[in-house]
């Protein structure tokens, strides 16, 4: 057993099909019909406090959503506001403060904690975050290709193991190279679908901007797919042969997890499975 000496955050995200019984009471948006295809998604996310409407009582379902708005929604679905994630948010802020201080987010400056949280969970990349959101790009519309990337990362997909050969969209060659495997993943998992055009052809439409209603539907599917739990504490030991990780949580209780293929562990913002477990950290 190897002792891991440093206080760190342990995030256990068990990716599994969860029969959650997604039932939402009707939200009182004047422009969301109860029989709209996106009504359940909008109502659920509204009831969970993940998204809100406008002061005039509308939701504006067809209004395009910006990158920064989408990022904030993804952070909330990932558990940013969960009390169990307070330590993780603190660690994320410390780890990525310098990176985010270099980005001018204008009126969204106070939301850098959410971005740090997604960086810590590997939903966003520290290597590309300035290019993605900097120079006012955070106000750009949120395209379908970006959604595929964020969804796959939030789901903990192992992109290296994914084949893109199964994509048969008429516009498959127009999907950005860096997004192809992510698109393949979300399509295979039923999290995103193609778009049928008037002539019957099915396209992915990678650069098409998503609306508020469409993002709600995507997040609704993620919630239905993922059961996420998070815990912070001190790791006491890790058995490299059995994969048993033992730690003491914030309440002083000793706990253990078996690190198998269904469990994703993030240690100080890095994928725990990729870390060298023989090192004391």
Please compute the radius of gyration using only Cα atoms. Answer: 20 Å
Share in β-strands? 15-25%
Q: H/E series, N to C?
A: EHHHHHHHEEHEEEEE
Uncertain residue segments: 1-26, 275-281
Q: In one word, what is the shape?
A: globular
Number of discrete helical segments: 8
Alpha-carbon distance between the two ends: 14 Å
Total beta strands:
8
SS content category? alpha+beta
Q: Top keywords for this entry?
A:
alpha+beta, disordered C terminus, two-stranded antiparallel sheet, 8 helices, 281 residues, globular
What does the model show?
This protein has a six-stranded antiparallel sheet. It has a two-stranded antiparallel sheet with strand order 2-3. It has 281 residues and is an alpha+beta fold. Helix 2 packs across helix 4. Strand 5 and strand 6 form a beta hairpin. The N terminus and C terminus are likely disordered. It is built from eight helices and eight strands, in the order βαααααααββαβββββ.
Could you give a quick summary of the protein structure above?
30% of the residues lie in helices and 16% in strands. The protein has eight helices and eight strands. β7 and β8 (270-271) form a beta hairpin.
Task: Summarize the helices and strands and which ones pair or pack.
Elements: E1 7-15, H1 39-47, H2 67-77, H3 86-101, H4 112-120, H5 129-133, H6 144-154, H7 180-188, E2 195-196, E3 202-203, H8 212-225, E4 226-238, E5 244-249, E6 254-258, E7 263-267, E8 270-271
Antiparallel strand pairs: 1-4, 1-7, 2-3, 4-5, 5-6, 7-8
Helix pairs in contact: 1-8, 2-4, 2-8, 3-4, 6-7
